Amino acid sequence: MASRQGFSATVGVLDVGYLMEAFQTLNSCILSLSFEVTTRRGTPDLMVIATAYTVDPATADRVPLVSWRSSLSQLNCATMEGAITLCLYRIDGLLAEKEMSALQPK
C-alpha cells in the first residue's frame, strides 16, 4: 500500500525491528506480537496481543512469561510504530513485576 505521507515506511519497520531485537536481548526473551480484527461501536479496530516467551531448554518449547492485550483505538497512538513501542513498555513492566514478585519472601 502506498503511504499517504509520501515517504517510505521502511525506516519505521527497521526501527521497530531493532527495538524489538534489543528488547529481546536485554530481557532474555522472545517477543511475539499478533493482531486480531475486532469491531468497536460499528468501526473496525485492531486488537494487539504482545507476549514474551522463554525457551524450555529440556524441550525447546516456548513457555509464556507474560502477555498483554489492548485495542489500538484505546492505545491512542498515532502510528503503528508508537503502538508497538507502547506494547514493549507494557510487557517490560509486566516482566519487572514478575521478577520482583519472584524476589519476595514466601
Structural write-up:
- The chain has 106 residues and is an alpha+beta fold.
- It has one domain: 2-Layer Sandwich (Double Stranded RNA Binding Domain), CATH 3.30.160.
- The chain is 43% helix and 32% strand.
- The chain contains 3 helices and 3 strands, in the order αβββαα.
- It has a 3-stranded antiparallel sheet with strand order 1-2-3.
- Helix 1 runs parallel beside helix 3.
- The radius of gyration is 16 Å and the shape is globular.
- The model has no long low-confidence stretch (mean pLDDT 87).
- How many individual helices? 3
Structural class: alpha+beta
Number of domains: 1
- Distance N to C terminus: 54 Å
Strand order of the largest sheet: 1-2-3
H-E string: HEEEHH
Q: Low-confidence parts, pLDDT < 50 over ≥5 residues?
A: none
- Under CATH at level 1, the class stands as Alpha Beta
Average pLDDT number: 87
Write out key terms for the chains shown:
Double Stranded RNA Binding Domain; alpha+beta; 106 residues; 43% helix
